[in-house]
């Protein structure tokens, strides 16, 4: 049974890596409306260090953290995240998931089914849907309609020459590349504005690069070039829509901590009202379905 939220919901954190330490923990520690109930990690020493830095406590037993929390945020590799999200939901905890929810449809479906069976709220943290400039822009473009074409380039330099990014040590990013790491960001914009994906064409490019051509339920089409291996000089994240009102370029956004705070608010609202958020576990499942099909088609050449 889903936990009822008090005046100040208790939210725990699963994960201790760079993303957890730089985004999730600061947002939870600094959020005036929630109690940061604790940290669990696969490395107890890292959990203890992050807990001290965040003014909370570390848990060596993840089930104990579930007991002490009304909700949990997960900052873990996707296929580690999924089974723990299932356990959290079964314990009645509302779940704030990271993207992608999982890298297999079966695992993503398990998360969705567990959330729905337990009646807990879920939100998938797609940064662009919660960062104030981009979230407002997406809502405006979805309401305006009339779009004919979308063009996106998300050229990360995580594995580019000279990269010193802490995220470069992530095994799942190294294995799955830009399609799975930054592809959810692009899809999180396209789906609410252009409609669900109905057809996919995909082709591999250099290194981990993927080129996608998508057909949407609205009749519009879109393209996306995704990579984590661009030279630093070529790095960019840009998305442009073309339609009856001309061109609309997605605005820049500043960091992820504020966006994650907005995602926390969205989860609390969904838990209190019982109204699913548009970026819930079912949306996360759909992202995994689309990316799985794109990966399959690219592999076929």
Automatic annotation (TrEMBL):
Entry keyword set: Oxidoreductase
GO MF terms held by the record: nucleotide binding; oxidoreductase activity
SUPFAM superfamilies to which the protein is assigned, alphabetical: Glyceraldehyde-3-phosphate dehydrogenase-like, C-terminal domain (SSF55347), NAD(P)-binding Rossmann-fold domains (SSF51735)
The keyword Oxidoreductase belongs to this UniProt entry's keyword annotation: yes
Residue ranges of domain GFO/IDH/MocA-like oxidoreductase in the record: 166-248
Taxonomy, superkingdom: Bacteria
Keyword field contains Phosphoprotein: no
Occurrences of domain Gfo/Idh/MocA-like oxidoreductase N-terminal (ranges): 10-121
Database matches in InterPro entries: Gfo/Idh/MocA-like_OxRdtase_N (IPR000683), Gfo/Idh/MocA_oxidrdct_glycsds (IPR050463), GFO_IDH_MocA-like_dom (IPR055170), NAD(P)-bd_dom_sf (IPR036291)
Protein name as annotated: Putative dehydrogenase
